[in-house]
Amino acid sequence: MTTATMQSSVAPLLHQVQLKANEYKSEVKPIWCPGCGDFGVLSAFYKALSELGIPPEKAVIASGIGCSGRFPAFVEAYGFHGVHGRALPLATGIKMANPDLLVAAVGGDGDAFSIGAGHLPHAARRNIDITYIVMDNEIYGLTKGQASPTSPVGLSPKGAPYGESKAAKSTPYGNTDAPINPIAMALVYGASYVARGFSSKPKEVTELIKRGLTHTGFSFIQIYSPCVTFYDTYDHYKEVTKPLPIAHDRHDKIAALKMALDSEQLYLGEFYSEERPSMVQNALETRAKAGTKFSLPELISRYKA
Asked: How far is CA 193 from each of CA 90, 215, 223, 298, rounded to the nearest angstrom?
């Protein structure tokens, strides 16, 4: 596969229309709790589509269950609200069936890293040309505040390492499970674009989404998106997050892992980006090779009585 043939599959869709961000809003009004970080992510997504000039009829969003699962209904585009943890298989099928579409998957930390965790390594290694946006609030919000795979050790109804919380009904004596590291996981699994944002920084999140959508291959974007009802982490993330160093080489996976594993600091920005053929490109190339040799009538004739 030559570099010349490795342009993003969404490149032909760019700047086809001139629509304002609010023109990507559907008639369905978001019903998230006031102050939810998901509003910031949704706003950034509108802006990303607007600035890229993507026709609404050429965009598809797949989701699973949870607060994030409602995301597709709020966007003037095609959407598929599937079952718990299955956003990535849905998005993969949509993209493979119609490679000319812009396809995004959205999920929360429970949907993405618990029941849906088994799909992440395969989407990453196959380099399917979709963007996976995970809105991480470190809690199960829709089911009223249980510890999730990214909840910190010690999380309890009375408090957590970073402030009082009414969260974690499933761990009344404190959460004892160590949280996973989504950025490190995505890097090790082979995602070709890995980034992290914070919903309180919409301009930065918009840029990350734009780069993810236009990247060739699997883009993984974790976004800290606090749940004000069950686990308000806004002040915490304002204190402990900062941009990746200007000198960070986003093409160096070891350097990206080092930043991801830093327990003292939570970095925001592009951790890693590489260019390699996507699953769609590999499939088209394989089909071209097989096309001259395969005959359906001949295959059927082998099994005739």
From this structure: 20, 7, 14, 43
Weakest-pLDDT range from 79-83, 130-134, 163-167, 195-199: 163-167
Radius of gyration of the chain (CA): 20
- Mean pLDDT value of segment 105-134: 96
Domains and CATH numbers, the chain: 3-302 (3.40.50.970)
How far is C-alpha 300 from the chain's CA centre? 42
Per the CB < 8 A criterion, the answer to whether 284 and 5 are in contact is no
Average confidence (pLDDT) over 207-228:
97
10 Å Cβ neighbour count for 203?
A: 10
The pLDDT value given to residue 175: 84
Strands lying side by side in the sheet with 219-224: 78-81, 59-63, 102-108, 131-136, 219-224, 193-198, 266-273, 241-243
Q: Give the number of residues written for the chain.
A: 305
What's the CA angle centered on 209, arms 207 and 212, to 5 degrees?
A: 110
